[in-house]
Amino acid sequence: MKQVFNPYLPLHEYIPDREPRVFGDRVYVFGSHDREGGKTYCELDYVVYSAHVKNLKDWRLEGTVYRASQDPHSKEVVKGAGERKYLYAPDVVQGVDGRYYMYYCLSAFAGKGGFSGPISVAVCDTPAGRYEYYGDIKYPSGNLMLRFLPFDPGVINDNGRFYLYYGWALPMGPTKNPLLKYIYHRVMEYMFHKTPEEMRTEHVGVMGSNVVELEEDMLTVKTEPIRLLPCEMEAKGTKFEGHAFFEASSIRKIGNTYYFIYSTSKNHELCYATSKYPDRGFHYGGVIVSNGDIGLHGRRAKDRLAATGNNHGSIECIDGEWYVFYHRHTHMSSNSRQGCAERIKFQEDGSIPQVEMTSCGLNGAPLHAKGKYPAVIACNLTNGHMPHIGNGVSKRKRPHITHQGKERFITNMGNKTVIGFKYFDFKGDVEISVKTRGKGYGKLMVSRMPGEGIGELPVKPSSDWIESSLTVDIIGIHSLYFTFMGKGRIDLISFCLN
């Protein structure tokens, strides 16, 4: 029987910044598109995958739906960063005319120029057909709407009224130091391409989450943008302090409540805020997911269960069940991000408890304790000192997911590296075999939780993939952990359960 893992798309695909949208009987995943082992964010054009709402184990590639070259702004040159040719996180909504409108921003290399261009729109007759450039968000006068920081758009059709959410912020708190204030403003002027006058005239500041209502033409704003959520500089003394807005605006309406999903100043987590109104009165709700399981059961940042980095996604109801879509980081880089998903549960009061990262995600049940599994579906990967990855590639020598040709595997496993998979349904005696290579030697401890060994697999030096196995007795639904104890470093490509 077919299963689905995390990440749930083919392992060569890197589609972060997910917006899951149900249109008809299929769920479509819209996102940006990283290159495997890429040099910057979002190097590739938009592709879309979809699945029938009743079968999330079978994802279909719909093809390339939009290319950066279709947007006339893609030929604009940003000083020191080249053309504005990278498509960043999109969102899609159906208009009153039945067509589908895709909202997005362009950026140059490494995010430069991403805050100074407009939010643009492409349109298509079907959710995953070939979109065509439609125009840019503008005022009734025809002037481009560039107020605040036009970045990471999210959009909602609220019974025929359309609201656009957007914004960005530096993840840093307030300061009373005059010199630091001066430096902050100079940095912001440089990053945001704003003049000192533009910065001064925004009494709420340019950073934060914003909302604006659109006309039915899906391009023209009805009102001036309104500040929705504070950034870290403005969050002190509020419920948002410590989880202030950073980026990744997304909006859902559930019953009579609006859920605003966003990435916080901590960077690794997706949080939510709620209101009875689409454009005001939002209250902090909590963390939905962290791509290092930070905060879950009180876990501290230094004890993260994987290298963390930026996070972006949303929630969606699919065939009566709610899921959160988010992304993880591979290649010890912020440029090769893969989408994952977990089922979430709403409490009676409408709150969403934080969920853990798993390997079984959309599968609907634990994985079978039978068959061959790729090592890169690990939901936990740590040596106890995993970093938070900023922009670019981390130079730290840590275990991570990588690729070589068409092979994808975990590399750089040193002593005490722990690799965890959640969850499997074990039925008793099971032969566990692993394929490793590398100059390292020692053993792989097998356990249902870190530190609780139930068996050992020998690890020998080899330049080729070699297999070792053992048989253990496990009954019930459990995690499966491999912990390397030894000298040197090894790679792990797969394991089998029989």
List the helices and strands and how they pair.
Layout: E1 19-23, E2 26-30, E3 46-52, E4 60-66, E5 77-78, E6 82-83, E7 86-87, E8 91-94, E9 100-104, E10 106-107, E11 120-124, E12 132-136, E13 154-158, E14 161-168, H1 178-192, H2 196-201, E15 208-214, E16 226-229, E17 245-254, E18 257-264, E19 269-275, E20 283-290, E21 314-318, E22 321-329, E23 337-344, E24 367-368, E25 371-374, E26 380-382, E27 400-404, E28 407-413, E29 417-438, E30 441-447, E31 453-459, E32 462-487, E33 490-497
Parallel strand pairs: 24-29
Antiparallel strand pairs: 1-2, 2-3, 3-4, 5-6, 7-10, 8-9, 9-11, 11-12, 13-14, 14-15, 15-16, 17-18, 18-19, 19-20, 21-22, 22-23, 25-33, 26-29, 27-28, 28-33, 29-32, 29-33, 30-31, 30-32
GO molecular function, one term: hydrolase activity, hydrolyzing O-glycosyl compounds
Keywords: Carbohydrate metabolism, Glycosidase, Hydrolase, Polysaccharide degradation, Xylan degradation
Pfam families: Glyco_hydro_43
Plain-language structure description:
It comes from Anaerocolumna jejuensis DSM 15929. One of its GO terms (molecular function) is hydrolase activity, hydrolyzing O-glycosyl compounds. The record marks 152 as: Important for catalytic activity, responsible for pKa modulation of the active site Glu and correct orientation of both the proton donor and substrate. This is Glycosyl hydrolases family 43. 4% of the residues lie in helices and 44% in strands. With 498 residues, it is mostly beta strands. It folds into 2 domains: 19-363, Tachylectin-2, Chain A (5 Propeller); 367-497, Sandwich (Jelly Rolls), CATH 2.60.120. Strands 24, 25, 26, 27, 28, 29, 30, 31, 32 and 33 form a 10-stranded mixed sheet that branches. It has a 4-stranded antiparallel sheet with strand order 1-2-3-4, with no helix packed on it. It has a 4-stranded antiparallel sheet with strand order 8-9-11-12, with no helix packed on it. The longest helix has 15 residues, at 178-192. The protein is globular and about 70 Å long.
